[in-house]
Request: fold
Amino acid sequence: MNQTVIFWPVIVQVVLTLVAYAVMSNRRIAAVRAGVARGRDFRIPNDPEMSASAARNVSNQFELPVLFYVVCLAFYQTGGVDMTALVFAWLFVASRIVHALVHLTANIVQLRRRVFIGGFLAVIVLWVWFAIHIITTGS
Reply:
């Protein structure tokens, strides 16, 4: 298998992060224009309700995804990219997209939590699969 295919889910995750930044920025600008916040309110983030979920989602894109990025790079570096790694990488990214959509729209915590757990489990599987790869190949 072409080892670089592992970077496609990584690229999509990066795009998701950039989209979350754009949403946060737009909502912050809208909050200032609506008179709900002032520009200086963002020096130490204290987002008004209309932008708080977007700001929190941006933070979320730098928490669990860090483990995803590292394991994808590790698979690539050791030549361990296979169909299992690729499927779970895509499952993780799909879960992050759904998580962001829920977080940035209805923000239903129970649904968001379930989706988060799906992504969390996908990362666990990726790391276990990577450990198995290292053990079996000596890479």
Observations:
- Residues 3-137 form a domain with the Four Helix Bundle (Hemerythrin (Met), subunit A) fold (CATH 1.20.120.550).
